[in-house]
Specification:
The complex is a heterodimer of chains A (about 475) and B (about 270). Chain A is an alpha/beta fold and about 475 residues long. Chain A contains 21 helices and 16 strands. Chain A folds into three domains: about 1-50; about 70-335, P-loop containing nucleotide triphosphate hydrolases (Rossmann fold, 3-Layer(aba) Sandwich); about 350-460, Roll (CBS-domain). Helix content of chain B is about 85%, strand content about 0%. Chain B has helices at about 5-20, 20-45, 45-60, 65-80, 85-115, 120-130, 135-145, 150-175, 175-185, 190-220, 230-240, 245-265. The termini of chain B are far apart. The chains are: A alpha/beta (about 475), B mainly alpha (about 270).
């Protein structure tokens, strides 16, 4: 009965007020008591970290550059990872050509990765793609040494990570890279703001500074207003936004994403992919993205490395993998792709050559078109926004009648978006005699699909029936 | 007597002969702590104590109903006339628990961090927990004589294992992904422990502390046999006099203290 009385609403409200008043009296005292402990703790931590600064570590190291002038942020050379008691002993066996299963049978050790080589260029999304057990997550964990590679090198901006002492490795992890996890990995006892600030707190950055940086990252992933929420009160998609914000907060050059969106339901996953692409357009991080979902890989990957049995079987763009599978395994893999989703204008478009500016004179345009033997040219304004097409006949007429170019630009032509399925693009192709312009959300001309691409689509589509 | 008993006797003799400085120091330290807190508890007027108990309970549990009942439970103890004994028992329980937690949690952390020492710690903990509680009283008396201090020492030994075990379990249960989170952002060992592992393991650890308090309370009664005093002494006396009324009253007082401490520790949650 007593509990009934005490749980009545007005009493409950009064109760909360009493509680809050008491807390207000006592909290500052508790904070004062905690303060010296906090200082002592920070001091001890600083003493424990005898690592060099990142600048010192990189003093005599240059980032390698490939033939096309891209900086190679990550270089992986002959990387192997064996799980078991005496990992080194399995390497000679692998060199003799023994298979994974044979080694497991004779030595009891598991081959996680063997002979992996690849480069990741600065600012690209590099997808590690494969079925479970193919070694993709192991590979990613070797890149920041959460797993210790058995042999081989991992170079981060030219620095061999495998040779670093633990202290220096920590310095690199703090400044150069961060990771987003499949099951979010949020600290349940911290609110969103403090979760995002975790990486900065570890570096010993003062509270006000780190909270400011965390707030920026939270705004970027669109979670403003949830700073004080605990992770348990957030939905899956929001949790991974927190994970992403935490990865971005310490402003690393490299972001490792381990099946980051795999635990989300399909609609949210698609949203998060778009969000990632949007953020990537702004920040151009070097992202290594692990996934088992080919659709996801094709959608977000600039380049994709397909893995099987601890080896990389093919590295290439989405189109390479779809059109020129390196071996049977890859072609079987791409068979199951949802083609309507993957065969999009974005995959098949080419860079437009027949470009004219809408402020050019008709005579210049005509000369350009006749010189290059174009029947049709695509007109864009100064910023690159699509205006329409120009046909040779019209250009001739404009020169003859002395009309401005703007009057002969035909803006009423079929255009498609990056995500438009090729089946729809082909319908446009058969009704016109020119390539179909591909525009992004803001009407910038990003490419064209040529009539010849229709043949490619049929080639790729043909694999389905084999 | 077999060899085992002979060795045990020799061991105890050796300690009391050669580690006198250590035993005296420990004796003095515990005596200081016990008389300090004991003086404070028995010096407080019961009414003031009950009010403080209410406020502390409200701060920890945030539940008015429970806090009223906590105050009420202390009032019943006062009303039955066991206030001075209850304060002695509370004093011993709190000091013993504090010591058990201070030793047990680091022990648990060590066991969780190292697979090599874990089995040894486990054996020691098994020994401490299952050896009949009365057995500890014998060396305690040899080392410290009669009184509160040997009672507290025996209590600490008996009540320490859950704190260590639950800490070990709690840290080992932290998901591997959380360790990877700590590592991948460049945390060092102490940051990983204090910022990730301990906070996540805290509910489990608090479960262990709760068990430690319950065990201390039950041991404190047994410690009355060597002059521990408090409610235990009342119970021992009622047993020798076959005084049912006194036995039930003192027993009830212990039950009430146990319930209060249990509810307070169970609802204590770690806050950021």
């Amino acid at each position: 009965m007593l509990s009934e009385i005490l749980n009545k609403k007005p009493l409950k409200a009064a109760d909360d007020k009493v509680y809050e008043w008491l807390r207000a009296q006592i909290d500052p005292v508790i904070l004062d008591i905690k303060k010296p402990f906090k200082y002592a703790f920070t001091y001890i931590n600083r003493k424990m970290d005898r690592s060099l600064s990142v600048e010192q570590i990189y003093e005599n190291v240059d980032c390698p550059v490939d033939d096309e002038g891209n900086r190679l942020t990550i270089q992986v050379r002959n990387l192997s990872k064996i799980f078991g008691k005496f990992p080194e002993t399995a390497i000679p066996l692998l060199e003799k050509g023994m298979t994974k299963d044979e080694i497991l049978k004779t030595t009891g050790m598991t081959v996680g990765l063997y002979g992996v080589d690849f480069d990741v260029r600065e600012g690209e999304i590099f997808v590690l793609m494969g079925l479970s057990g193919s070694g993709k997550s192991t590979l990613e964990r070797c890149l920041n040494r959460l797993h210790e590679p058995t042999t081989g090198e991992v170079n981060i901006e030219g620095l061999n990570l495998t040779k670093l002492s633990n202290q220096n490795l920590r310095a690199i992890r703090r400044k150069k890279m961060s990771m987003v996890f499949q099951n979010f990995g949020l600290l349940p006892h911290r609110n969103v703001l403090n979760n995002v600030a975790y990486g900065l707190e570890v570096q010993g950055i003062p509270e006000s500074e780190r909270l400011e940086a965390a707030q920026k990252a939270i705004d970027m992933v669109g979670l403003s207003g949830y700073e004080k929420s605990k992770p348990s009160s957030l939905s899956g998609g929001m949790k991974q936004r927190v994970g992403l914000a935490r990865g971005l907060a310490n402003d690393p050059g490299i972001l490792f994403m381990d099946e980051a969106f795999s635990a989300l339901d399909p609609l949210i996953r698609s949203d998060m992919q778009d969000e990632l692409l949007k953020i990537q357009a702004k920040l151009s991080k070097t992202i290594v993205f692990v996934t088992h979902d080919l659709d996801e890989a094709l959608k977000i990957g600039d380049r994709i490395a397909l893995m099987n049995d601890g080896k990389v079987v093919q590295i290439g763009t989405a189109e390479d993998i779809l059109q020129r599978p390196a071996d049977d395994y890859v072609s079987r893999f791409v068979e199951d792709v949802d083609r309507s989703k993957v065969l999009t204008a974005g995959v098949f478009m080419k860079r437009p050559r027949e470009l004219v500016k809408s402020n050019q004179g008709p005579r210049t345009v005509l000369k350009l078109m006749e010189g290059s033997n174009w029947n049709v040219a695509f007109a864009v304004d100064k910023a690159g926004k699509f205006q329409g097409i120009v046909e040779t006949d019209d250009a001739l007429r404009a020169v003859r009648d002395n009309l401005p170019l703007a009057s002969i630009i035909d803006g009423d032509v079929p255009t498609v978006g990056i995500d438009t399925p090729m089946s729809e693009v082909i319908q446009h192709l058969v009704t016109t005699h020119y390539s179909i312009p591909v525009l992004d959300d803001e009407n910038y001309l990003v490419g064209v699909v040529r009539p010849s691409s229709a043949v490619d689509v049929m080639n790729v589509g043909g694999n389905n029936n084999e | 007597m077999s060899e085992v008993g002979v060795w045990a006797e020799r061991g105890v003799d050796f300690v009391s002969d050669n580690l006198d400085w250590f035993l005296t120091g420990l004796d003095n330290l515990l005596d200081w702590a016990l008389s300090g807190l004991g003086g404070f508890l028995s010096g407080l007027p019961p009414a003031l104590f009950i009010m403080m108990a209410f406020v502390v309970s409200l701060l920890i549990t945030k539940r008015a109903m429970l806090s009223v009942l906590v105050g009420f439970a202390f009032y019943i103890i006062y009303w039955m006339g066991y206030w001075p004994s209850a304060m002695i028992t509370l004093n011993m329980t709190l000091i013993a628990t504090l010591l058990a937690v201070l030793i047990g949690i680091p022990l648990g952390i060590a066991a969780a961090k190292s697979d090599r020492i874990n089995p040894y710690i486990k054996v020691v903990l098994d020994f401490m927990q299952t050896m009949p509680a009365f057995v500890y009283l014998i060396p305690a008396v040899v080392f410290f004589g009669l009184g509160l201090v040997p009672g507290v020492i025996a209590t600490v030994i008996f009540a320490l294992p859950p704190a260590a075990r639950f800490t070990n379990l709690g840290i080992r249960q932290v998901a591997e992904e959380m360790d990877e989170v700590a590592e991948s952002f460049g945390s060092n060992a102490s940051q990983k422990l204090t910022m990730v592992q301990l906070p996540i393991a805290m509910p489990t650890i608090m479960g262990g502390v709760n068990q430690t308090i319950m065990l201390s309370l039950s041991m404190v009664v047994i410690a009355a046999l060597i002059g521990g005093g408090g409610l235990g002494e009342d119970i021992v006396r009622s047993l020798s006099r076959v005084d049912v009324g006194m036995g039930v009253e003192a027993g009830l007082a212990i039950v009430l203290i146990a319930m209060i401490l249990d509810r307070l520790t169970q609802s204590a949650k770690s806050e950021d």
